[in-house]
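FW: tagging you since you asked about this chain on Friday. Here's the raw sequence from the shared folder, copied in full. Didn't touch anything.
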Amino acid sequence: MAGSVLESLRQLVHSWWRIDRVRVAKCTGRLLELVPGDRLLVLGQLWLVIGRIEYPIDQEGAPIDSARRSGVVYELRNQVVEYSGRCCLHVLLGEKGLERVWLETEERGQSLWEDEIVVLDG
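HL: got it, structure written out here
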């Protein structure tokens, strides 16, 4: 009896281990799960997520056909400074996890470190 339970457990662990699944750090996971209405602190400024697009993208944010690189682009609105232009936060994933994050406005783009972005609760 104990042998069959151990064998079943071994098969379960083996099956789980062989499944192809995305593995990312918790903070990266939060960046990938944002929805309109969520708030962020980016470089000390408060932003509201107002839109979300998921698709395969290249390093410049243009759509590509490859499933090897994907990402999420969030449209943002600044909650403090009056800014009427378009602003997007790009989160780019590569084969090994988070590859690049950058903030794009009509004037410029700026690469960010993951710790320069804080997802606010509620």
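FW: Residues 23-120 form one domain.
HL: agreed, and The helical segments are 2-18, 26-32.
FW: great, closing this out.
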